Amino acid sequence: MPLIHLTDRTLIRADGPDAVKLLHSVITCNVKTMAPGDARYGGLLTPQGKIISDFLFYCLAEESFLFDAPADRAEDLLKRLIFHRLRAKVTFAVAADLAVAAVFGDHGALPEGRLFTDPRYPGLGQRLVLDKAAAEELSGDLAAYEAHRIALGIPKGGADFTYGDTFPHEADMDQLGGVDFKKGCYVGQEVVSRMEHRSTPRNRLVEVIFPTPLAVGQEIVAGDKSVGQLTSVTEGRGIATVRLDRATDARAEGVPLTAGAVEVELRKPEWATFPLDWEKKVSALDAKFKPT
To answer: Which intervals hold domain GCVT N-terminal (predicted)?
Structure first.
């Protein structure tokens, strides 16, 4: 049953009259426009614009929020949120009494809890915040949820990108609603805005299609040149971090992309709006030579 206790996630509470003002100025998503029951995807960045942690962010009430964060990032995320608090009237604490479950597909009746739509992509389903004791009675089959998110091409921090060394655009956060480019300042905003408006990310996470099983970590090459690396795999498909310029050159030269001895195909995820570099070149040629 696709109702899975996400044992690799930790919930952090943020409560207080200054919560909206503080968090809106610190994290990448828009907090001021949220109402109870809303969910956003966001992140906390370094001043240099790299991802410390990404998370789902839930509005419980006017002055009460939850971070749904990777468990192995929770301690550091909590410390950094407290660091940014200064004299603001807001408290941060791990919600040790709560847990979160992924809800997708045919799931039947749900336990009591707060249900939030996953803001990244409709196909991901929903998140259910519930008492930890109730969550522990659910399936903890993380492999089933991993297969679900990989099949949709949704990146996961720590697997598909490295925390502390990745810009939001390189993790496709800009494609999944993880950055609000109209909200104004937040930590790392200048670097992220400059990348959005003045440059094209060299690296992107894209889908990979392959006919026979491959393993995480396998290098994708064009001849003897490295193009990228597989970061997540499920049956017949996966996610890879790819140098778009090198993949484009390989396409232009007719050189196949392979992982091991297996030829692979790179695809843009269904939810992505960025063109792959070779698509941009084809579009430009179409526009140049299309009859008027």
So the answer is: 12-104
The vertex-260 CA angle with 256 and 264, nearest 5°, equals 40
Residues near 201 by Cβ (< 8 Å), separated by ≥ 6? 167, 169, 170, 195, 244
- Cα distance between residue 2 and residue 22, in whole Å: 36
User: DSSP assignment, residue 124?
Assistant: G
The ranges of the chain annotated as CATH 2.40.30.110 are: 201-289
User: Is-contact 22 88, C-beta < 8 A?
Assistant: yes
Going from the C-alpha of 229 to that of each of 170, 199, 220, 257, 262, the distances in angstroms are 14, 23, 5, 11, 13
Question: Which residue has tokens 């996966």?
Answer: 238
Q: What pLDDT, on a 0 to 100 scale, did the predictor assign at position 278?
A: 66
CATH class assigned to 201-289: mainly beta
Fold observed for domain 3-171: Alpha-Beta Plaits (3.30.70)
Considering Cα of 131, then 137, then 143, then 148, what sign does the dihedral take? negative
Residues of the chain with CATH 3.30.70.1400: 3-171
Contacts of 173 (CB under 8 A, 6+ apart): 28, 41, 43, 51, 54, 179
Structure token pair of residue 163: 């925390």
92-127: pLDDT as tens digits = 999 999 999 999 987 678 999 999 999 999 999 999
277-289 vs 244-253: helix crossing angle, rounded to 10: 50
